[in-house]
Amino acid sequence: MSSIQKSRNYGITVIRWVARILGGLLAILVLVIFVGEILVGEGPGNPFKHPLPVQLGFVGMLAMWVGCIVGWKWQGVGALLTIGGIMTFHIIEKRLWLTGAFPLFDLAGILFLLCWLLKRLQKSAGTK
């Protein structure tokens, strides 16, 4: 294996692990917030009694959470779910830039997507 191929493999590995660590931390954050809401007693209640934008926000958050977890094994699926979920929030809020932890979900989804694309390009070039 040439030094260029080794550096490409190393780059993909670094991107994959950054995406995994970030996605894992974000999944834990969502879980902690959800459990905290349940323990405080306020909880989300019946999600079907909320207005449609709030219901879509729940679906988006679930997609982002699942995407961050699934992305550990299947980066393409994780990217699709994470980016799809965060796009739901961008559409609901009618803003390109969201505050708080939301940009980190954007980043995790993009990193999962980049890792998946680089792996596919590497396979199509005939290297492993």
Topology readout:
Layout: H1 3-40, H2 52-70, H3 75-93, H4 102-124
Account of the 3D structure:
It is a single chain. The protein has 128 residues and is mainly alpha-helical. It has one domain (3-124). It is built from four helices and no strands. It has helices at 3-40, 52-70, 75-93, 102-124. The longest helix has 38 residues, at 3-40.
List keywords for this structure.
mainly alpha, 4 helices, 0% strand, elongated
Report mean pLDDT, rounded to a whole number: 87
> What multimeric state do the chains show?
single chain
- Give helix and strand order, one letter per element, not per position: HHHH
C-alpha end-to-end distance: 10 Å
Main sheet properties:
none
Approximate helicity band: over 70%
* Low-pLDDT ranges: none
Strand content: under 5%
Short description:
This protein has 4 helices and no strands.
